[in-house]
Amino acid sequence: SSPKAQRITALEHRRGSGGTSESLRWRQNPLWAARVCLPVVYIRFPQDCFYPPPQQISMFLSPPVDFLDCGRGAPVRMECNNPSDFRIEADGVVYAARSLQRSPQHALVLLVKAIDGTTQQQWTTQVRMEPPALSSHVPPAGNTDLMEISFPSRRNSQLKRMKRDWVIPPINVPENSRGPFPQELVRIRSDHDKSRALRYSVTGPGADQPPTGIFIIDPISGELSVNKPLDREHISNFHLRAHAVDLNGNQVENPIDIVINVIDMNDNRPEFTHQIWNGTVPEGSKPGTFVMTVTSVDKDDPKTANGMLRYKILSQTPESPTSNMFTINNKTGGIITVAAGLDREKVPQYTLIIQATDMEGNPMYGLSNTATAVIRITDVNDNPPEFTAEMFSGEVRENRVNVIVANLTVTDKDQPNTPAWNAVYKITGGDSTGRFSVPTDPTTNEGLVTVVKPIDYETSRTFVLTVEAKNEVPLARGIHYPHLSTATVSIRVMDENESPYFEPNPKLIKLEEGLMPESALTIFTAQDPDRFMRQKITYSKLSDPANWLRIDPNTGRITTIATLDRESSYVKNNLYNATFMGLDDGKPPANGTGTLQIYLLDINDNAPKVFPQEAEICEKPEPNAINITAVDGDLNPNAGPFAFELAHRPFDVRRNWTITRISGDHAQVGLKIGFLESGIYEIPIIITDSGNLPMSNTSYLRVKVCQCDINGDCTDQQHIMAAGLGTGAIIAILLCIIILLILVLLFVVWMKRRDKERQAKQLLIDPEDDVRDNILKYDEEGGGEEDQDYDLSQLQQPDTLEPDAIKPVGIRRLDERPLHPEPQYPMRSAAPHPGDIGDFINEGLKAADNDPTGSGSTAGSLSSLNSSSSGGDQDYDYLNDWGPRFRKLADMYGGCDD
């Protein structure tokens, strides 16, 4: 065997789910002495193995048997010599095929064979399972039948490095145990308990976490016990962690995980999700047609027989045509048909009793439950509608619509109020003009023969209709309509007294306006549609808005009783409408109405007028004229273009005014003289239209002459009053303006006074002190900002400034106001600082007089000052125009006495 295999003496137990009471130990293979690659058995388990009591064993997972193929790569199949008791999976895991009883006296030897899937070469090895009594380890005092769980050995306080992870096999505990409690499950122990006293404990849900108190452990012996019956349907497994500490509470072993599986017992009956199941299947369905699926659940473990359910049909009601019309899939619960002959008209519904049994349907050990399946046979259209009679009759009065004249009845054996029962009627003959329809009554399924268009008795007195009846859905395959699905309907029309009617309606006539009274216009008569009745029609007037017309009651002749005027307010778009009524003498009498439309042609019967009739003009027009328009009630060519002229009287009209024609409808009136006194003047204007036999009219234009402002608007009191302002409103406005002006004046005086006070304070500061560093800027209006605009450098000798202190052009402080570039003055020789402002100015004058360049100061206004001048008669008021810097100088050296 390989050196790696030779070094392995015992490996950790990798995984498991229970076991027998025997212990598994590795035994050396006799074939290892050979120099060939042979299978090696890896038995993975701790030094102390453990197993539950034999009565709890149904299947256990042994340590896996691995085959070291030495790089062969071929698939290997494993077999054992005792397949009735054990089986080996492809991954080498050995399972118990049944519950095994341990034998304390004899060890069980299992022969394992590995077969190469390609070459069929075989290797064998042995797995020896010995009882705990053969183990070299003697368990501690206590219950010697308990399975033991040992902590893995440690090296240098760390877990020993192993090929596989340390996994403790689960502990299986059956549910619903009757006790007595507490019931011991397993013993937890550590190899260190030989040298010192230890204390054991477990933690996790079921121990110290909710639900608490289910599992308890003896801290000295390490016996883990269950304290009450378990319910797998409530909690199927528990995950605990075992701890081992010394008497000082120091951890001796790393905690190990313990899984406790609750073994299922068949303590729950199957429960159907519904107690009554409803399904449908069409009538006439073939065998094997799916109907529905019933389901039930079992709280027991579905992986075991406890939760494996089987279904069957206990009974069928009614047992027609056979007692086995349906069957059920015993695993899925699907119900299907197994026999033909489903007929809804004979058996509309079946009731099945379904049973579900666990333990795979074992009637002796399984638990059962039942439910009811109601299968409704749905209708198919296998019965056509049939008329109850071959002939139907009815009658209707002429000109009636939306009335029922006959009811057609049918019979249908299919389920009522379904598409297979609902009838649809169709007229197949006798109604070429489409005057009838046959809708279906949704309640009775009758055909309602209804008139949808008016019927004229004088045209048709009887109708014979052919009606066909079908269902909403086609008939099932193989079924044909009988002859009774067609019927004949006879309808008689009854005469009615119909209303007279005017033809044409409305009637239009054209004539000129101004027609004189008692003039004949036209004859407007009505016709009686009742040709078989001899009736007389009389006429009357219903509507005549202007009361212009009269109608003869016997002949229908219409004459005028007043002059027709196209410009009347009753005429719209040259049309005048009048309504008349014709009444017959039938029983009962009937009447009809007609409208007469008179289109009035225009004649020149209206004189033109001026518009507007009032206007305003200034006393001194510059220029200021009035535009006027001529209006005429007539239409072209009886209206414009118009001729305009001023009347000859009074004589001052043509002397003061002038009129100029602008277009055919417009003219302009203006003052002929340069000035006209304010007042109201009426100007007579003669306007003549262009009609055949033209008409003239003198209209008066009322003109108000007033004083105007620069905008040409009247400014006198009357104009203001015309604008809608009263005397009180004008006085209030004037008072507000005066108060506002006073407030502004007071504010300006206060600002002037404050500005002078600040300037006086600035002159008292030493020129060498740049007061800008001490000036504060306030957020205020007026002089607050202006007070910070002093540039005291202008009052200092430029030569005395250090070169670094001279500001470049365009550079200013952040607290300075942005200023326009100031003129640059020439540099003068240095001079001592004057003691006061007067001496400073005198020194400046001397420097200017002695300037070798001859240019003097760039401030031209100072050139008038000279050293020989006394200054008493000099006017310094112009310094006020230089800005705030020179305003104080003007006050000090000006001509004022103060």
TrEMBL record:
Region annotation Disordered: where it falls in the sequence: 1-23, 780-881
Extent of Acidic residues compositional bias: 781-790
Keyword Calcium tagged: yes
GO cellular component term, pick one: postsynaptic specialization membrane
UniProt domain Cadherin: residue ranges: 165-272, 273-387, 388-502, 503-610, 609-715
An example Gene Ontology molecular-function term: cadherin binding
Low complexity bias: start-end ranges: 853-872
Protein name: Cadherin 2
